[in-house]
Amino acid sequence: MNIEEVLKEHARKIGVIKPKYELYEFEAPKVREVVSKLLEALGRERVFVTTIVGTDRPDEGVIELTYFVYIVGEQNQVIALRTRVPRDNARIPSIVDIVPSALYAELEIYDLLGVVFEGNDRLRRGFLVPPEIVQQGIYPLRKDARV
Q: Which CATH architecture is the domain 3-135 placed in?
């Protein structure tokens, strides 16, 4: 099945990253719709979020999130789904209830960048960040963090 066709209403292809990962862009509030569409079209047993990469872009006032999705099949494939959230209100719906493999990535991004994954009741500081940094309210991967 053609991924571009599956995502046409929810995300648009904007290029390729790495050697062969197709890159799609979507609006942050639609993350659940985008992932649900993949699950529906390809099957829950075939879609895994392997990681979410967060990149602080203070000059643009955003935190960029790139979800790497592994699709199991005859031709195993990885796609990247990219969105942005405002840096001063870094919130996005969680997908952990529909794709449990996203849990570690959501915890990591919350702890290191301060992005709140709404609906994930397991978010907590100190998952990776030492207690003394947490107590100072610092998110160490933000470019203006002073540790």
A: 2-Layer Sandwich (3.30)
